[in-house]
Each structure stands twice: as C-alpha cells, then as structure tokens.
Amino acid sequence: QVHLVESGGGSVQSGGSLRLSCEVSGSLDNTYFLAWFRQAPGKQREGVAAIDSNGYTKYSDSVKGRFTISQDSAKTSLYLQMNSLKPEDTAMYYCAAGNAVPILTLIEADFGYWGQGTQVTVSS
Questions:
Q1: 40-59 residue pLDDT tens
Q2: Assign residue 15 a region: left if phi > 0, alpha if psi is -120 to 50, beta otherwise?
C-alpha cells in the first residue's frame, strides 16, 4: 500500500507562486511514477506533471515552463513548484503514484494510488 498526503495549497493572485508538497509513504516498486493531477469544477481530472524513479519528467502543455515537479533525495516527498499562476490553474490538485509502465505518462489510469487533494485558487 502507498499513502499520499498533499499540502501547500492556498489562494494567490495571478502571477504568483505556490509550492505543493506530497508526503509519500508505503512501498512502491523500484521503478515507479509519481505525478500531480488537477481537477477544476465541472471538468475532468487532468495530468499536470509526472516524474519517474530515474528523475525523468513530463509536463502538460498548459503548465510547461511554469511548473516544476521534483522529489527529495530520500524519495519520500514529491513537490510541485508553480510559478506565473493563472486563474485557469484554479483546481483541486492531487498527488498520484503508480508502478511504472514502459513510458512515463499523464494518464490517470496508470496511477493506482491517490491523495485527498489540496485546493489551489488563483484570483485575477
């Protein structure tokens, strides 16, 4: 079992920054993916950024160049640094984990473990 707990959400003005954290506990395979997803009201959950056990990263086009996903050296925490935030970034943000498939993805079905979410609100 893998347990994920997000923190760091909040309210910020457009152009501001936030850093989300996710505490990762339990046992993942030696090869794994970790990711951030988000879901805005009335919309489907979408993948934002992912990282694999080798440190390779993948971003959605909507956040590329503004968001950075990273892990601590102990691999017990996952982070999402969000800069130049826009009102359209407003959503519940979820941390997700999964055992690796051949190619790093932002596909929801590839992640079997989910946190409870942390709310990010960006005002104009």
A1: 999 999 999 999 988 999 99
A2: left
